[in-house]
Amino acid sequence: MSLKIPVAHDFICPWCWVGLVQAKRLEGEFGATIDWLGYELWPAELEWPDHKPGPEPPANKPVTPNRFEFILISDGLEIPKAERPKKMRTFNAHQAVEYAKTEGVANILVESFYHALWRRGENINDVAVIKELASGTVKDIDALVSAVETQKFRENVVHFDDDAYAAGIYNVPTFFIGGLRYAEQPYSVLRQAVKKELDL
């Protein structure tokens, strides 16, 4: 039984870098097919917030991992140490992926975009960068660029907050497995959900 797993994601989210690794593991272990769904965390209509550091903890408080640090520990992962673009939108990158779906190469392009951003710090929303990353994977580069520039697949990319919330997506990545949604979960949880769905 082949299992198709839709995954709501956005390239700029560190949780989604973890989600990419998890998705690759599900493909390898269970032969699952991943359907990447574009959910843009910071669409053009939202203003970027300025980061404000929280208060310093008491000097005598033991160090405890936060939720994201815990999932990195749980899944045995590290975030790549690359200088990444600040306040980068991702709409163009998602549009490119939607075009790549028409050629059956979306998952290759998604992985390429994630590695370009998280390992090399490239601006994957820049059309020139998209063209370079898509070369050798997408056959019709001109059609891809046209799709991006004309926003041909605009309706396929869901914006945060209101539209995403209306679709039941409050966090990315969200994996859809067996009619349930699994958001920001360790691989052990996703693995168990897939085993249950496949009756293993």
Please specify the SSE layout and strand pairing.
Elements: E1 4-9, H1 14-30, E2 33-40, H2 67-75, H3 91-103, H4 106-120, H5 127-134, H6 141-149, E3 158-159, H7 162-166, E4 174-177, E5 180-183, H8 187-197
Parallel strand pairs: 1-2, 2-3
Antiparallel strand pairs: 1-4, 4-5
Q: Could you describe the 3D structure shown?
A:
With 200 residues, this protein is α/β, with parallel strands linked by helices. The protein has helices spanning 14-30, 67-75, 91-103, 106-120, 127-134, 141-149, 162-166, 187-197; strands at residues 4-9, 33-40, 158-159, 174-177, 180-183. Strands 3-2-1-4-5 form a five-stranded mixed β-sheet. Helix 1 (14-30) packs parallel to helix 8 and helix 5 (127-134) runs antiparallel to helix 6 (141-149). It is globular, with a radius of gyration of 18 Å. The protein starts with a strand and ends with a helix.
How many strand elements?
Answer: 5
Secondary structure category: alpha/beta
Low-pLDDT runs: none
Task: Characterize the main sheet.
Answer: 5 strands, mixed
What is the count of helical runs?
Answer: 8
Percent of residues in beta strands: 5-15%
Helix and strand element order: EHEHHHHHEHEEH
State the helicity in percent bands. Answer: 40-55%
Strand order of the largest sheet: 3-2-1-4-5
Mean pLDDT level: 96
C-alpha-based Rg, rounded? 18 Å
Give the overall shape, derived from the CA principal axes.
globular
Gap from first CA to last CA: 11 Å
